[in-house]
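Hi again,

Forgot to attach this to my earlier email, sorry! This is the prediction with adenosine monophosphate bound. I've pasted everything inline since the attachment limit keeps bouncing my files.
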Amino acid sequence: MSQDDIDKPDYHHILAAVDLSPDGDTVARRALELAREFGARLTVLHVTANLIEEPAYEFMTTLPVDVDIQTEIVDQAKASLKDLCRRLGDEDIHRIVEVDTPKHGILDVARREEADLIVIGNHGVHGLELLLGSTANGVLHHAPCDILAVKVGG
Ligand code: AMP
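Structure tokens for the complex follow:
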């Protein structure tokens, strides 16, 4: 066995975290390329906010949101993921819509689905993001596996 064989990563399940902006296509496309290269499974994940139980910040009170609205948002996200996979040329790609904050949703699904590589977009951190922390940054610090941060946003 050569040193190259030892160092080469061997990914089996790649998780692409997409935010449904045009950047999502960039992230998913890169993940698909890698999945093909490694012969790995690919899951495309979008996380939607839980409007019913958890306000985004402690100082917010929970709004009386109809369960139907939450269902509608999840259904729309599922349809958007399906469209994204169609644009990638493969409607059979495994898709998950999770209800949570983006950071926790991505980390939970990565653990649950035993992903060994998370592909995520990275805008670079500036302005308000510096205070709040970007999603990529938050995921990076708790990731159970490797992460590829794809430069997005021009
Ligand atoms: P942001 O921190 O909003 O700049 O997002 C950076 C990256 O985090 C995005 O390019 C996605 O890869 C991922 N991300 C952000 N929000 C979501 C979300 N709601 N669901 C899944 N991934 C997300």
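The chain is about 45% helix and 20% strand. The pocket of adenosine monophosphate is lined by residues 17-19, 23, 27, 45-47, 102, 106, 120-121, 123, 134-136, 152 (CB under 6 Å).

That should be everything now.

G.
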